[in-house]
Amino acid sequence: YLWEKGYRRPGFMAGPRTLSTALGRRRNFKAFWKKKLGIEIIELSAERYSADAGAEAMRHYLSRVAAAERIDVLMCENDVLAFGAMDAIKTDFGLRIPDELAVVGFDNAPMAESPSHDLTTYEQPIDLMVKTTIDMVLKRTVRETINFPGRLVVRRSA
Predict the structure, then answer these.
(1) Does this model's pTM top 0.85?
(2) Over the stretch 110-157, which tens digit does the pLDDT of each residue have?
(3) What is the SS3 assignment for the chain?
(4) How far apart are the C-alpha atoms of 120 and 77, rounded to whole Å?
């Protein structure tokens, strides 16, 4: 989706390096852009999963990088980081989303559809994931790693 929209200077905001699913999101995003453009993506690091941490990481990046050299799209490891990044982009730097910097999240948290965020995000099939996990814990099915397809929820942020 991001490639088709014309973005070519991607960035990724990660939280703490503790969750294997989060590491997979980062790894897959990096691999996609490496394959498409042969580039290493810009990485922004948030110390924790919170809107405040997302905003601080975004402020740190935007205050140190010249406008002409900035990323044009930021993929956040989750929606909470994206909410903070968007607040900093709009409020602290007066930039327009997505015209000057697009933002994408992951999870489709309830606030993602609010008019103040209108966040493009990737939604996971939570109900199916929970049911499958319970079935594995109760030994109704074999324990294995499963990748469930989700869906892209396109809104105005990207």
Answers:
(1) yes
(2) 999 999 999 999 998 888 888 988 999 999 999 998 888 899 999 999
(3) CCCCCCCCCEEEEECCCCCHHHHHHHHHHHHHHHHHHCCCCEEEECCCCCHHHHHHHHHHHHHHCCHHHCCCEEEECCHHHHHHHHHHHHHHCCCCCCCCCEEEEECCCHHHHCCCCCCEEEECCHHHHHHHHHHHHCCCCCCCCCCCCCEEECCCCC
(4) 13
